[in-house]
Write a structure and sequence with these properties.
207 residues, nine-stranded mixed β-sheet, homodimer, Dihydrofolate Reductase, subunit A, 31% strand
Chain lengths: 207, 207
């Protein structure tokens, strides 16, 4: 069975998206800058179905590994709604995606191997579906912040990757706004620095 | 003329102190764990006038360098008040300390080379006093969070060192709660990892 992991970009002041987010502005004002490093990698651009990007950098290697290890994704409903408007026909997951929602609908298959499944389940039950869909690969809790916090606070995350961007956003959505401290002990696994981003990897051990 | 720098510990969820802080609990509930790495270094223990600590680790080298470079400190009034109760007779600065306050008093000299000066000045004027006191050495903006934010937002900080602790605090005082994003551009200078703490160093360039 694979691991359950979070891999997410964060500004130095703790935001994963800027203010005024919405379907036409999914990362909020200024939020796209958090992911600037990714747009410079071949792996990320390819995942979006686009040209360009550096295939030789350490950043690219890390992005590539994150995509390859992932067998299924879990998304909050708001993140799905924002993406539904913006993502091109070729949705950038290329794997099963479990969407947490109170309004279930039938699965929605898109080109490129992405199928969205809608689950009005507990976070535990949704994770079980994702695990089955992922096979031997890992399950990525994609977001948004509230979904990530729920999975942490339920003690269900094994590993946390943060891409720490050298910037202040000032306002927006905080990645870690409601963390329960006693539920987990974090261990530093490795830190890899590039000129534009710092990759932090932690292992989460239950207390 | 030296640089103006901030060097501060932060939990992964962005807190520099836990909740319920006060003179008898200066780092707030759980906050001391952010500084666990420092208590394992000889440099920090020596600075506190205590025995013990590892003198050979990279963490120790970094702590030592931070003390040696600092010619003067700037503190907010609340941080001073909390320390006044807790710090031993041999105050752990060993350098001039400018305390920002609305209630000035005469300078207060303590054993070990620490003298507190009380300034009801603008942040700019207090910095000028600290620069003069520091000579060729650097000025450290020690905190608390509000003072650090004021210096950042006034465009007066040259360098930011964060000791990022692998832990969630959940509640408390956020280091970066009111940052103005357009005032500064951050560049990663270096990242040094140890098993228990991650040292992040940024250069701040005015926009």
């Amino acid at each position: 069975m694979g691991n359950v992991f979070v891999s997410v970009g964060m500004s130095l002041d703790g935001f994963l998206a800027g203010p005024n987010g919405g379907p036409k502005n999914p990362l909020g004002d200024g939020g796209v800058a958090i992911h600037q490093w990714a747009f410079q990698t071949r792996a990320f651009m390819e995942h979006l179905g686009m040209e360009g990007g550096d295939s030789l950098s350490r950043d690219n290697e890390i992005a590539q590994h994150t995509f390859e290890r992932t067998g299924a994704y879990i998304l909050g409903r708001r993140m799905f709604d924002e993406g539904e408007y913006n993502w091109p026909e070729n949705a950038p997951f290329h794997a099963p995606v479990i969407v947490l929602t109170n309004s279930p609908r039938i699965p929605w298959e898109r080109k490129g191997g992405t199928t969205f499944y809608f689950a009005s389940d507990t976070v535990e039950a949704a994770l079980e579906k994702a695990r089955k869909a992922a096979g031997n690969k890992d399950v990525r809790i994609s977001g948004g912040a509230s979904v990530i916090q729920q999975y942490f606070n339920a003690g269900l995350v094994d590993e946390l990757d943060i891409q720490l961007a050298p910037m202040f956003l000032g306002k927006g959505t905080r990645l870690f706004d409601h963390m329960e401290t006693l539920k987990a002990k974090l261990e530093i696994v490795e830190v890899i620095n590039s000129p534009i981003i710092t990759h932090l990897k932690y292992k989460i051990a239950p207390v």
